[in-house]
Amino acid sequence: MALLTGACAPVARATLPTTPPRGAVRVDLEEMKECLQFQRRDAPRIASVERPELAVRLTELPPEVLRVARAAEVDALLSALLDSRDSTRDLAIAAKLHLVMRLSSLEIDVASLLFHTQCIGNQMDSVLRELDRRQRSREVALTVSSILMGAAAATAGGVWELRGGGGDGPAALGIVGGVTAASLGLAAFIPERRAVVFPHERNLLAPIARGEDPQGLYPSFVFRMLTTSPASGGPSSREEILEDWRIILHDAVPVAQRGLAESLLFGDGGVYDRRLLDVRERMFDVLESHVNAVDRDLELLYRFSSRLVAVTAPAGP
User: Fold this and answer.
1) If we measure between CA atoms, which residue out of 78, 48, 54 comes closest to residue 66?
2) CA pair distance 241, 168, nearest whole angstrom
3) Residues 185, 188, 194: CA angle, nearest 5 degrees
4) Rounded CA separation 16/259 (Å)
5) Nearest to 198 by CA among 147, 131, 124, 297
6) What's the farthest any 2 CA atoms get from each other in the chain?
7) Is this structure's pTM higher than 0.90?
8) CA–CA dist 202, 194 (Å, integer)
């Protein structure tokens, strides 16, 4: 009963402790520094071209390309390149250079964010593996202790009887040894709820949950892509992410503990148990898949723009 009570005792806390719990696993902050190298660096903006006839030409773009172009803030450049009246050599080359620089900068931003999400995911994988290793070591230790305790009790009872000891001593010793060995054996099957101290001040889950990014954790292009609806209609990537997160929390966390779990997952860090750490890893997997989708959308804009930025050699010798 004591072991079962200890296994059900609450471990998670939505604040970082001043003194880590005994036996807690702590995320290595030195390794986390590699994941924190990403800093939002928005590409230089290009001033919009306020001309109604250019806006009309933008309607000729495929809807998905137009959505990405507006999120990337290159719609004015595409307008200039699509307008045959602005196709003079100097203006065309300048617009092409601006477009290539902008798209290249956005590609770096998306790649940096993907590295950040993958690095955090690898850190959580390492902690989960460490928890599994400690759990296996605990199971082996308890199992061996159970066998040794049973053998020691049986041996002690036998020696007592061989020496002519009378009374209920051998029987009592056997009962105590059997109960102790059985308790240790059962304890090996009860998973230990070991605490994990996990600070995450740069929490990428929080802006998605709140719908705003005041700290600038995401490149503005990526956050616009995640929060705007697709051209075909339907939910935005953020809405799909929130729905997937809701299902993960519903399946893994009881209703009574859901408020604490959300405060911990969307806060600045705290004390996790293995279940909540697994929930956080699954939520990061969902986020990473949608950032990969943004990367594919940017590739779509790249392919469409490639014919506009093609430079031909001038005629003549």
Assistant:
1) 78
2) 67
3) 150
4) 17
5) 124
6) 118
7) no
8) 24
